[in-house]
Amino acid sequence: MAEVQRPSKSRSSVHRCIVNDMGKVWRRLSEAWRKRLDQRITRAGLAFTLAVFLTGAAAFLSANNLIFLITSALMATLLVSGLVNRLSLAGLEVEFHPPEHLFAREQAMAKLVVRNEKTWMPSFATRLQSIHADGLTQPLFFSMIGGGEAITEYASVRFSKRGRFRDNSLEFTSRFPFGFAERRARVTLHADVLVYPALEPQPYAQDFLAQVEGEMQARRAGSGDEFYRLRPYISTDSARRIDWRSSARHGKLHVRENAREDAVTVHIVIDLFVGDPGMKWLERALETAAWLCARLEDAGVGYSLRTQERIVEVPRDGDLYTVLRYLAVVEPTPFGKGHGLEQVLPGDGEGYVIVLTSDAARAPSGTGLVVGS
Fold first, then answer.
1. Mean pLDDT for each 10-residue chunk of the chain (373 residues)?
2. 271 and 255, same structural domain?
3. I need a surface site. Which of 53, 92, 266, 354 has the fewest CB within 10 A?
4. How far apart are CA 373 and CA 361, in angstroms?
């Protein structure tokens, strides 16, 4: 009966497999070791450790009791340093209070409350910093946090993009007492941070706003019955328009203005179908829409934001921050190229319309200013 010979693996392939397996095991062990220690040895720690080894070697070679005592003192110092360093970071908690309104790529001040839960031991020389690029712009340093003490600090924060940020992580670091090692303690913040799109317009948005600027100025004062604003009195104003109650409160004359009945309305339409340009185009469109809404809000002009998902009319459905909160979390639509914008466009003659779309062919003809990718 003939024997079937199976092809055997070459020694080189077996050797490579063993090396790869050993490399994977080593990486897993090193990662687990780093997570367990969660510290970094400094240059001072390396130098002190080398001194301990040299002193210990000299003690064994010379059999000198005095050198043995010195070695014991150095080792005890190293052990006590690690223990005190570990206890210094234990029991620290952080409360993160973000600002109410936060825009992408814009610095703002946030409130942080650092609390030491240890009632008997203070924490010394502690640094608090962000793990990721978003969050605190600069680390905070605390020389001492007493036992049971809570310290309130205001720090600058910055987020690079819009969106909802959850589970933001901060990190405590300390080299106390001797600087032999830098121990780290991560703190996960379960604060829900909502970041609005950056207010950075494109040139076409500025040109569009300049076109309707004359109509926006015409809304200032009219013969309608709706109140618009109070402004300081000028010599050409009629005395019948003076608001005496506001004038008495401010100590100078103020005039009451009413809005015109034919007030200007601007409709901003965003096509959530990103197409070939992708998310980069959508982010620019959202930033442009946010800038337009902010400028129209400052001018007191009624406007609406329209997408395939939602229509927000200001001031009927909310204010500027209602729009910004939606722009912060909006995502591309699953609609394809066959779904146009007919359902979200306003009727004819209902104000100015600007359409932001990745494909100008998706907007029906005669819809106002259409801006493609």
1. 48 58 60 58 90 91 90 91 88 89 92 91 92 87 92 92 83 90 84 88 81 61 57 73 78 72 76 83 91 86 87 87 92 68 75 84 73 69
2. no
3. 53
4. 11
3 state DSSP class of 38: coil
Say if residue 226 is in the same domain as residue 209.
no
Task: For residues 86 and 80, give the distance between their C-alpha atoms in angstroms, rounded to a whole number.
Answer: 10
Count CB atoms within 10 A of the CB of residue 124.
Answer: 16
Which residue carries 């049971």 as its tokens? 148
Helix axes 279-299, 203-211, angle to 10 degrees: 30
Does residue 292 fall inside a structural domain?
A: yes
Tell whether 235 and 160 lie within a shared domain.
Answer: no
Residue 273 in domain: yes
Sequence-ordered alpha helix ranges (H) in the chain: 11-37, 43-62, 65-89, 203-211, 213-218, 244-250, 279-299, 320-329
Residue 224's domain comprises 220-262
10 lies in some domain = no
Which residues are within 8 A (CB) of 196 and not within 5 positions of it... i.e. 6 or more apart?
A: 101, 102, 103, 104, 162, 290, 324, 325, 327, 328
Q: Are residues 110 and 140 in the same domain?
A: yes
SS3 state at 261: coil
Cβ count within 10 A of residue 175: 22
The C-alpha atoms of residue 353 and residue 371 are separated, in whole angstroms, by 11
- Quickly count: other Cβ atoms within 10 Å of residue 259's Cβ: 19
